[in-house]
Write a structure and sequence with these properties.
The protein is of the alpha/beta class. The chain contains 16 helices and 20 strands. The protein is globular.
Amino acid sequence: MTAALVEPIALPELTLAAFAGRPVVVLGFARTGIAVARFLADRGALVTVYDVRPADELREALAALGGRDVRLLLGRAVDPASALEGQSLVVTSPSVSSRYPTTEPRLRAALGVLLADGRVPVVSEVDLFLRLCPATTIGVTGTKGKTTTASLTAAVLAAGAAPVLLGGNVGTPLVERLPELTPAHRVVLELSELQLPTLSRGTTVAVYTQVTADHLDRHGSVAAYRAAKRRLAELVDPEGALVLNAEDPVSAAYAGMGTVPVMLYRRDAPLPGGVGVHDGWIVAAAVERLPAAGGGPAALGPGGRVMPLEEIGLPGAHSVSNVLAAVGVGLLFGVAPDGIRRAVAAFRGVEHRLETVAVHDRVRYVNDSQGTQPDAVIAALRSFSAPLVLIAGGRAKGLSMEALAQVAVERAMAVLLIGESARTFAHIFARAGHRRVELLGSLEAAVVRADEIAHSELVGAPPATTATVLLSPAAASFDMFADYAARGRAFAAAVESLLAGRPG
């Protein structure tokens, strides 16, 4: 079959039935690619999967197909252009794009040719989901805090009457859940800078934590990165809303776009129609519910009160901002203040983000493997009191480390470095004046050494003193691990191994 004989799938008329009997290729066979391949095969599509990795590196992914009839083009011997021939639709995983220099060069070139031709549509998994999703959607993005904020938002919405799903960049890709979704559902999507540039459909509500700088290895400049982040605000549903951090100048400026209603949140007295803090309480000021929630004023307690700050169970002042965003979304959707309060009070964080994996003999071990960006690590360092030992390093992302190094001088008694960036990071931390910087050959060795330092600092300290061993890498994981989650699990396993057999 040649490409000329295949009728492309028309995206504007896309339905769940549109894939039956049609050839579709999935580019990339990690978590997202597996879900898309299964979804398409279950819809009757003739599915091809392309991945540069060979089959022996993809055993788990292949097993996850569950015996579905899928054509596999795997390994470097395969020309990616051949995978694109004769297809009616191309579906990409988040990291695959003709725009990204991090995409395999041959695949990037082949995609460029296909896009220039313009006949066969190319769509990402998240854009495919949004095109087909009948539910109300809430997109959450930002440079840091988006995983916690998305998870909190889902927990708050679940306190209402509507069924809620959480996915996107966090947890499970939701494309396989499409057949069960209805207009009554609420879907919360964490959206990364990888996913945003591929969107042609927006969410009902767009939530921003803040926008600084990250992933310059992929985007090339701060301006390009911020342009990618802005995409969600540009596409938000006119019947929805923008929920913006008033303390972040980049995302707060989106309020001037004038396309949809805006809710601003800040750790100060609330602005009209927004959420804030007053006298130790989270409060709101004249919030209006969305049309999807029936419209009209949102229910609030006396003086606009929602909940006291002391009931937030997450560490760090930055966590208050994440809670404010989630509370704001809950009010927009008509969740009662007492339900919001219970949901937030019960929330104890997400895996790999300031996650306490153990506390033993006055030492707290914290997995912040998602802290891949300097601002996130700064926030983590400020979330715990001294004494504190920082484990950092991995594959550098082209970001400035100077501000982080200065905060580490103030907050961390020692910095232990691992991975490709260890020597570069060591130079930066030493130049900032840090006198205790060590290079370790593995994460396991770093955990052992960090534990030794932490216990040495507790000698002679008051009995109530707790030390913290903090994994917050300020770097990507791909030099040593499959992803940040694998790195976080390795940290937890190293801590468990360290503590095994110790009394108490």
